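Hi there,

I know you've been waiting on this one. I reran it after we fixed the sequence typo, so this is the corrected version. Both the input and the resulting structure follow.
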Amino acid sequence: MQKLAKKLIAVMQECRYVAKNGVNTFHKYKYATCADVLEMVNAAFVKHGIASITVPEVVDLHEVTTAKGSTEHIATVKVTIKLVDADSGESLEISGMGSGQDSGDKAVMKAQTAAIKYAYLLSFAISTRRRPRSRPANRRTLVRSIRPVCSINKQGIPTEVKSERTGLRLP
């Protein structure tokens, strides 16, 4: 499996980071979309001659009653993704789990999307944090923080608030 491993390392090098372009307006957070992960990973697979075959399996599907009294479906899906080196025929399987909840017929699709996304994120160590900055290993970083300083009168009420800058050099 040496030839496939070398290609997977190249894929990992190209797919180190995916931006959080998705927005959940209800819960107010950003996330990496499955589409963004797939677009990046698939481009690297094609470039390096790796085919992927995804087989989903519904592990659990049940109904729940929400706090408002409506019925929703919760699905849990396991995906197995077979990666095949087009040149050598070597292969490797990765897997992922995902759950999805929906009042209609989309619970399984939501679970499958999550399972595929996390199979790739975890198997290829893809970060969703802010794009890492590159800096030379021998360069020191200056970390600054602002510390609030306030004066308190005899009644215990803050009368003046100002800030002091502090600095710390890290190796």
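Quick highlight: The chain has three helices and seven strands.

Best,
R. S.
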